[in-house]
Design brief:
52% of the residues lie in helices and 11% in strands. The chain is mainly α and 242 residues long. A hairpin with a 5-residue loop joins strand 2 and strand 3. Helix 7 crosses helix 8 and helix 8 packs across helix 9. The longest helix has 30 residues. The chain is globular. It starts with 6 loop residues before the first helix and ends in a 17-residue tail after the last helix.
């Protein structure tokens, strides 16, 4: 959270942290408490707390009282970037073990989901529900690949996907599917459940139900999000798209 009165310095701080925050699922937050007249960045009297948290159990915490210095923020960003590699590898291993899939497939899913702004936890749940991680999966209605994209939808999302072979290519399939889900969740103002239902049923069907005062739920979102202790509680989106 950044004090909105600290316009110049706060914006500069967030820009400096963006590279660390947006890569590899890192979370970076800066708190700037105004302590006098705003001076030109980077020299602003402030109290700053920066938390770079790769996993809940091992946050990397920086705190400095005084001037925001370029050298200090360089160290923050450098440390965060070093941590992202090891954290990403650990996350890939965890997903591979949980779903009993090869690590190279887990890494592909994790990396593309992150690049498209989708929380990897949600991404793996979705791919499991859609295809059980079978890149050659074919649905009864003609849906294809890991994300079970209908050929017409895939071509609408990416004009380069002209043939079934191109749609079935795992990376292309994942990019199109995760990108589509990102747009849907944004369209429904961050509502992950409605975004998933639109992914499954189509926006038109979901919108008609909502206009008529009905819940568009068909059971699909519960399959993806889970129930009880296993229910997904995240926000769905982790960053803006790269």
């Amino acid at each position: 959270m950044v004090d909105s009165t600290d316009l110049t310095g706060a914006r500069w701080l967030l820009r400096r942290l963006a590279g660390a925050a947006a890569v590899g699922g890192l979370l970076a937050t800066g708190t700037v408490t105004h302590a006098g007249p705003v001076a030109p960045a980077p020299l602003m009297a402030a109290e700053m707390t920066v938390v770079v948290d790769t996993v809940p159990s091992s946050p990397l915490h920086f705190r400095r009282v005084g001037l925001l210095e370029t050298e200090y923020l360089d160290r923050v960003v450098e440390a965060a970037q070093k941590m992202k590699g090891s954290n990403a590898s650990a996350q890939v291993t965890q997903f591979a073990r949980r779903y009993d899939i090869p690590e190279d497939l887990a890494r592909t899913i994790r990396d593309i989901a992150s690049a498209e702004g989708i929380d990897p936890e949600l991404a793996f749940r979705l791919v499991y529900t859609e295809s059980r991680f079978n890149p050659r999966a074919r649905g009864p209605a003609g849906a294809l690949g890991l994300m079970q994209l209908m050929p017409s939808t895939a071509r609408w999302l990416d004009r380069s996907l002209r043939t079934e072979a191109q749609i079935l290519e795992p990376k292309a399939n994942l990019r199109a599917g995760f990108g589509y889900l990102y747009d849907l969740i944004r369209r429904y103002e961050g509502d992950v459940r409605l975004g998933l239902l639109a992914y499954n049923r189509g926006e038109g069907t979901v919108n008609r139900a909502l206009r008529n005062g009905r819940d568009p739920e068909n059971g699909y979102s519960r399959k993806v999000l889970g129930t009880g202790e296993n229910r997904y509680e995240g926000d769905g989106l982790i960053t803006s798209r790269r």
